Structures are given as C-alpha cells and as structure tokens.
Amino acid sequence: MDETTVDRFRTRYGPWALIAGASEGLGAEFAEQLAARGLNLVLIARRKELLEAVGEHLKRRHAIEVRTLSLDLAGEDIGTVIAEATGDIEIGLLVYNAAISKIGPYFEIPLEDHLAEIAVNCRAPMMLAYQLGQLMLKRGHGGILLMASLGGSLGTAMVVNYSATKAYNQMLAEGLWDELRGQGVDVLACCPPAVSTPGYIASTPKGSMVALTAQVVVTEALAALGKKPSVIPSLTFRAANVFMQRIMPRKSAIKLMGSTTRRMYQK
C-alpha cells in the first residue's frame, strides 16, 4: 500500500481504532494491519496477559500508541467502562471481532450459554456501534466493521444460535451502511467462511473443510471498507455462496450446511 493510500486511510478512520476480540486470530491480525497503517489502537479481550503481549509487540514494531482493556464483553456495563477508558481519545474505527460459539445440538446447550452468545455476539456490537457511531457522525468521518459469518446466511445445525447471531451482525451492518452512506461513516459486514484461528482449531473440527487464513480475511475486509455493505472473503467462497443462495433450493442448502457441521462436530 502506497503512502498516499495509507495517509487517506488514517485520515478517514484514525487516529485510533478500537478492536474487540483482539488477543489472537482475526483480532490480532486486524491490529497488525491497522497498526501498519499508522492507527493507534484500543485492544479489548478477556485474557489480559495475551492482550498485553499483542499490544507490546505492536508498539515496538510500528511505533504507535496502544491501550489494552481486559473486559468481558457479556457485561451489561461495557458501554460505561469503554467510554471511561477512551473518553480522552478520538476513535475513528470500530472493529467488532469478539464472539462466542457454542457447538452442539440446540437443546443440549444450557440456556445461559445461548444468552451469553447473544450478549457478546449481538448486544455488545450493537451498543458499541451506537455509542461510537454517534461520535463518528458528529465528526463526519469514521468506520464500523462487524465480523459476521458465511454461516449466518443459512440456519445451521449444531451452531443454531451462533449462526443466528451472525445473521444479526450482517443485517445490522448492512442497514447502517445504507443509513450512513453519504454522511462520512462507512459500515461493513465481513462474512468469512471457516478461518484458521486458534479458536477454530481448538473446536477440533473433523473432516477437511477449507479454512482461510486470518491475513486473507482481514486484507479483504479492510480493502472493502467504504466500498460495499458486506464482503465474503475469497472468490471461491463468493461463488459458493451465490450457488447456495440463488441456485440451490433453500431447503437443500440448509440440509447441506447441517450435514457439513454434523460431520465436523457430531460425536
């Protein structure tokens, strides 16, 4: 990326970016690529030591400012906590990457786990988009990037509630994109397929499903910001989505998704 493009990105989305779910995987890759563009970072995750290690690495490598905030995003007070921690800085970009994914038959997962998924995957990004987006609107520039999922395009067995929460993120981002376009605030839903992150690997999926790298997903997401309401990283998966959404009967597509997740996760 040339210096002019970097400067333009920093002017529109800087000087600070807030990344929720930043300790590893996609969040850490977003932090790396945004730091390379010269943005200062507020990094949020639960695991304090891992989060601080990411922050120290970025400060040394890119000579930026980094603030870390160890926080459970399921908490009802997250808006207040984040506002107090960032009240003296200008956040021009929100990247919401944090998520809980409970795998298994819907009725075998405790209700409190389903509610935690909704709190982290839906309530928190809605609150932060509202809270930070209002400030961006007043300044006339900024960006909101919500991580949805290709799995949110269809109801999916074994991850029923998770896929529903990801559909919410896509609809939220796309609706905001339309409301805010022309007002200086860009909104994007990134809808990747499986991504080879520590969390995905720890879920011990069986089979040979292709997983994208975090670098590919983040690179395509940042390239799409300000250009479209949503993006599916990888031409292969964009083509697969067109086939499943427009050519295959929806009933058949849902059954195919379900059979895939059952092969991966059913004991």
- The helix count comes to 10
The CATH architecture can be given as 3-Layer(aba) Sandwich
| CA-based gyration radius | 18 Å
CATH domain class = Alpha Beta
Order of helices and strands: HEHEHEHEHEHEHHEHH
What is the CATH third-level topology name? Rossmann fold
C-alpha end-to-end distance: 46 Å
Tally of strands: 7
Mean pLDDT: 93
* CATH superfamily membership: NAD(P)-binding Rossmann-like Domain
* Low-confidence blocks of residues: none
Structural class: alpha/beta
- Which word captures the global form? globular
Count of the separate structural domains: 1
Give the quaternary arrangement of the chains. single chain
State the share of residues found in helices, binned by percent.
40-55%
Q: In order across it, which strands form the biggest sheet?
A: 3-2-1-4-5-6-7
Query: Per DSSP, what share of the residues sits in E-state strands of 2 or more residues?
Result: 5-15%
Mind summarizing the main beta sheet? Answer: 7 strands, parallel
